[in-house]
């Protein structure tokens, strides 16, 4: 009967989750098809990109679901619901944990095996022509390096000692035996957590680079809008006339049969390339000026401004909360050796203040968390789209509508997978108590103690809430966040870098003018064949 009550209560939730999953798949298909090149599209790269992007979005949706489930087991007065006995609670916790196991394992599979294989396969296809067997062998050879890295991370995470014994007379065999016992008791959680945390550090670097800039660029671009297509077309026409006149002046030097100098020949070549680019811009601007999509965007311009203001408010709320949380750690934490973990909250932040207020009206707190998570994802997409994909100072790929190469889409999806892993820790930094326990309440209020034992630069955390026999149910997300102190220390410094890049991006975005209506549509290295895709969009 208890399980039947729980099932009836959660059936609607599962139906909604199914609808969300369907919406995610549709969105991923539309997004990938929108940006991929029509002339270079490949079935395998398209499927890989759609699947990886869907996994990233589904993984980001796990955090609000996890928080909702632990909160759903209790009544508003602090008592457990009738169906939420120990066995049912354990089954729900295990289901969520298995969900994390599955998705994180899929992420490892995508990052270390599938995406690298497809990337190197397509790279070899461009160089080798059509020898499929040779392409597969070469792709497997390069992918083997990624698999080796994954295996090393899993082994290190499986056997790294989290609790070093203090017995001085313990033998080496006893220490090895302890490692295997710890590995068996964790059911592989430590190994997976170490691998995921390693990828999260890379995701932190990607978030600092792309998400921080996207959080400032996306809202301001919506508020400022784009330049008028008619105005740009007039300017472009003037540029064409100026370049044509310059070409005529240079070519007039050889009317008497004298050859042009090498300098003049270089100038003619550059001006002809410039003229071809300007004429492509002319065709694009003419197409956009008469398109129904441009007229629709002009009609919803006030709505874009509203969304821009809303997004900048969310970005400022996020940044201020992150700053206060990091400042609290800097002033009151146990230091670098403990990963800057603090005992309680000494400096509150706007998000920590807002979530308890929203908990009184279901489901406003879950809507806010979901909004922040999805905002984090979409600003990351905007940052990658505006900046392109870089390796240090080298620009590898551009993300352009209808002209993005398959390799660039694979890079895009891999970066989003890594950023999603970092999202959970960012949210935890903003509202640690809420991420751990949700909106759970208690019958008797007593102080919550957090016990931290630090042993030789290693912090082991045991978090308990004691309420006369009642114990809080901790979210499964928390189990993956603080296994290793050095990762927490890296996240702490990464948060400061994130704030700095956001402020720099905000200043740069404010100083920049309006974007061109065909921003990123026309480049000098484009061929005239790219204009064949105009009819597809406009």
TrEMBL record:
Please state the protein's primary subcellular location.
Answer: membrane
Please provide, in alphabetical order, the Gene Ontology terms of the cellular component aspect for this entry: lysosomal membrane
Source superkingdom: Eukaryota
What InterPro entries would the database entry show? LMBD1_LysCbl_Transport (IPR050854), LMBR1-like_membr_prot (IPR006876)
Report the locations given in the UniProt record.
Answer: Lysosome membrane
Q: What are its GO biological-process terms?
A: protein localization to lysosome
Q: Which UniProt keywords apply?
A: Cobalamin, Cobalt, Lysosome, Membrane, Transmembrane, Transmembrane helix, Transport
Question: Any stretches that span the bilayer, and where are they?
Answer: 12-32, 44-65, 98-122, 142-162, 189-213, 305-324, 366-396, 408-428, 484-508
Write down a Pfam family by its short name. LMBR1
How is this protein situated with respect to the membrane? Multi-pass membrane protein
What are the recorded GO MF terms, alphabetically? cobalamin binding
Question: Does this UniProt record's set of keywords contain Transmembrane helix?
Answer: yes
The record's comment on protein family reads:
Belongs to the LIMR family. LMBRD1 subfamily.
Protein name per the record: Lysosomal cobalamin transport escort protein LMBD1
The gene for this chain is: Lmbrd1
């Amino acid at each position: 009967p208890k399980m039947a009550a729980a099932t009836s209560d959660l059936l609607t939730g599962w139906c909604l989750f199914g609808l969300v999953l369907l919406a995610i798949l549709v969105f991923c298909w539309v997004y990938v098809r929108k940006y991929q090149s029509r002339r270079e599209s490949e079935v395998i790269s398209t499927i890989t990109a759609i699947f990886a992007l869907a996994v990233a979005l589904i993984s980001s949706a796990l955090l609000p679901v996890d928080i909702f489930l632990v909160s759903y087991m209790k009544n508003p007065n602090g008592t457990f619901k009738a169906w939420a006995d120990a066995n049912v609670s354990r089954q729900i916790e295990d289901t969520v944990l298995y969900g994390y196991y599955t998705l994180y394992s899929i992420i490892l599979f995508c990052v270390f095996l599938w995406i690298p294989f497809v990337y190197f396969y397509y790279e070899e296809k461009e160089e080798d022509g059509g020898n499929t067997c040779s392409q597969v062998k070469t792709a497997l050879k390069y992918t083997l390096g990624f698999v080796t890295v994954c295996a090393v991370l899993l082994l290190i995470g499986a056997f790294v000692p989290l609790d070093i014994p203090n017995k001085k007379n313990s033998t080496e065999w006893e220490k090895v035996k302890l490692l295997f016992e710890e590995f068996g008791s964790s059911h592989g959680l430590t190994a997976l957590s170490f691998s995921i945390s390693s990828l999260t550090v890379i995701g932190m670097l990607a978030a600092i680079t792309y998400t921080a800039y996207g959080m400032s660029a996306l809202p301001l671009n919506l508020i400022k809008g784009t330049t008028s297509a008619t105005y740009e077309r007039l300017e472009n026409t003037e540029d064409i006339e100026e370049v044509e006149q310059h070409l005529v002046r240079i070519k007039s030097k050889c009317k008497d049969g004298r050859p042009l100098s090498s300098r003049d020949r270089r100038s003619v070549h550059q001006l002809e390339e410039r003229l071809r680019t300007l004429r492509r811009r002319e065709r694009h601007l003419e197409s956009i000026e008469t398109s129904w999509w441009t007229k629709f965007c002009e009609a919803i311009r006030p709505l874009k401004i509203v969304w821009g203001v809303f997004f900048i408010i969310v970005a400022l709320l996020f940044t201020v909360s992150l700053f206060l949380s990091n400042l609290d750690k800097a002033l009151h934490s146990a230091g670098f050796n403990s990963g800057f973990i603090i005992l309680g909250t000494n400096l509150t932040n706007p998000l920590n203040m807002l979530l308890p207020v929203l908990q009184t009206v279901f489901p406003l707190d879950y809507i806010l968390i979901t909004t922040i998570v999805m905002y984090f994802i979409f600003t990351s997409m905007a940052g990658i789209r505006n900046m392109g994909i870089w390796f240090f100072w080298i620009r590898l790929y551009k993300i352009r509508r209808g002209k993005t190469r398959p390799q660039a889409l694979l890079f895009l999806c891999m970066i989003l997978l890594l950023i999603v892993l970092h999202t959970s820790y960012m949210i935890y930094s903003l509202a640690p108590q809420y991420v751990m326990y949700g909106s759970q309440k208690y019958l008797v209020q007593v102080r919550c103690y957090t016990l931290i034992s630090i042993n030789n630069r290693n912090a082991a955390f045991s978090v308990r809430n004691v309420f006369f026999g009642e114990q809080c149910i901790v979210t499964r997300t928390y189990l993956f966040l603080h296994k290793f102190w050095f990762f927490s220390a890296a996240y702490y410094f990464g948060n400061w870098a994130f704030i700095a890049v956001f402020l720099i991006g905000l200043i740069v975005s404010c100083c920049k003018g309006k974007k061109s209506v065909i921003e990123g549509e026309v480049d000098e290295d484009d061929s005239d064949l790219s204009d064949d895709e105009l009819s597809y969009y406009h």
